[in-house]
Amino acid sequence: MHALIDGMIVNWLLNRDFISLTRDAEPIIDCYLLGLGAAPTLLKTHLKRSTR
């Protein structure tokens, strides 16, 4: 998630026409989060590793 948001901001700072943060950021993040929900097993595995 951090890489996604950081990448959007960095690319926007380099080229303001790259993306409209006010228009596009929320749907892009929603899509990313929905993608995580499509792989619940991977998410559970990652959560188990990060709590060790």
Structure commentary:
The chain has 3 helices and no strands. It is an all-alpha fold.
| Extended strand count | 0
Through-space gap between termini: 20 Å
- What average pLDDT do the residues reach? 80
Specify the structural class: mainly alpha
- Helix content class: over 70%
Low-confidence stretches: none
**Cα-atom radius of gyration:** 14 Å
What's the quaternary structure here? single chain
Number of domains: 1
**Which band does the percent of strand residues land in?**
under 5%
**Which shape, going by the Cα principal axes?**
elongated
So how many helices? Answer: 3
Biggest sheet record: none
The SSE string, one letter per element, is: HHH
Write the layout of secondary structure elements.
Elements: H1 2-14, H2 21-37, H3 40-50
Structure, briefly:
With 52 residues, the protein is mostly helical.
Keywords:
52 residues; mainly alpha; 3 helices; 79% helix
